[in-house]
Structure formats: C-alpha cells, structure tokens
C-alpha cells in the first residue's frame, strides 16, 4: 500500500506565518491581506474558559464589538502588545494571547465562549482566535515572522 500526502485545506488557501514577538500564536495569512490568528502551541489540558477581556477606553467585551462597512467602522485598532484574550485550562494554567502585529480587529471568535476547547481541538478552523486586516492596500505587516511548514494530511490508498 502506498500513501499520499496532501496539504490541508487551510494550507492550500492561507500561508502559515510565525509571530516575531510571541511563540504561542501563528497567523494564517490570505493573499487578500486578511489574517486569522490561531494558536501555535496547543495546550495538553482541556480549555475550560476564554475571556475576551475589556478595552481600557470603553470597558466593552471585544467579542461583542460590531464592525460594519468597507471601511470597517467600529473596528478596534490593535498594537503588537494588545491582548486579544486569555484562556484557562482544566489543569489551572492560564494563557494570554496577544495580537503580535499592528492592524484592525475585524472579528473575535465568539464561538469560543460556548465551546472554549475548540482552541485546542480545532485551532485552524472553529478554534481561531481573531481576524485582523491592515487597511487599504496593505497586504502584509511588520510582526509576522518566517513561514511555518504546512500541515499535511496522509491518506492511505
């Protein structure tokens, strides 16, 4: 029997990049300039809670932020050290996820409120953390590191 190796669906569409500042996150970068923030180092223990925190200025939950229109009106501006969320594991450990890049926060994954373990069990799709854009005409930004190897699927024939 011979096997075949294929790039995952995510890796066929997005390029996987590391963060220059934080080793716990990775970016799935689309050629259109949209970037999905995902976990790079998956915790061993079950994730039991995700806290999207509050902004200092408005005191609002980031996951309830409403963005509208082509200009992304209402989106939050992120700095590399902006905290996106904190998640807690069953073993008592707590992990902070920061943006790592300068950009505009378009969406937080509010599904993580009801099913927080998606961060661990499906990090590249249902368990993504945030979606970031960079403004008109900007396709890449500082803070993204080297390309990471794509995930491969192995099928037996």
What does this structure look like?
The chain has one domain (14-138): OB fold (Dihydrolipoamide Acetyltransferase, E2P). The protein starts with a strand and ends with a strand. It has 157 residues and is mainly beta. It has a 7-stranded antiparallel beta sheet. The chain is 8% helix and 38% strand. It is globular, with a radius of gyration of 16 Å.
Jot down its keywords:
157 residues, mainly beta, OB fold (Dihydrolipoamide Acetyltransferase, E2P), three-stranded antiparallel sheet, 12 strands
Q: What is the string of helix and strand elements?
A: EHEEEEEEEEHHEEE
User: Strand arrangement, largest sheet?
Assistant: 6-9-10-4-3-2-11
Helix coverage percent of residues? under 10%
CATH topology: OB fold (Dihydrolipoamide Acetyltransferase, E2P)
Based on CA inertia axes, which overall geometry fits?
globular
GO molecular function, one term: actin monomer binding
GO cellular component, one term: nucleus
GO biological process, one term: dendrite morphogenesis
How are the SSEs ordered, and which strands pair?
Elements (H helix, E strand, L loop, with lengths): L2 E5 L1 H5 L1 E5 L5 E5 L5 E5 L7 E5 L24 E3 L4 E7 L4 E5 L4 E6 L2 H4 L3 H4 L8 E4 L10 E4 L4 E5 L1
Antiparallel strand pairs: 1-12, 2-3, 2-11, 3-4, 4-10, 5-7, 6-9, 7-8, 9-10
């Amino acid at each position: 029997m011979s096997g075949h190796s294929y790039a995952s669906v995510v890796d066929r569409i997005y390029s996987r990049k590391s963060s220059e500042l934080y080793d716990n996150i990775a970016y799935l970068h689309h050629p259109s300039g949209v970037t999905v923030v995902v976990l790079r180092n998956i915790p061993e223990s079950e994730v039991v809670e995700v806290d999207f925190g509050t902004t200092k200025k408005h005191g609002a939950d980031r996951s309830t932020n409403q963005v509208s229109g082509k200009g992304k009106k209402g989106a939050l501006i992120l700095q590399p050290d902006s905290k996106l969320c904190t998640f807690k594991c069953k073993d008592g450990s707590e992990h902070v996820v920061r943006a790592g890049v300068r950009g505009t926060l378009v969406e937080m994954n509010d599904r993580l409120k009801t099913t927080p373990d998606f961060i661990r069990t499906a990090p590249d799709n249902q368990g993504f953390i945030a979606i970031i854009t960079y403004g008109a005409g900007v396709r890449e930004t500082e803070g993204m590191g080297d390309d990471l190897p794509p995930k491969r699927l192995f099928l037996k024939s």
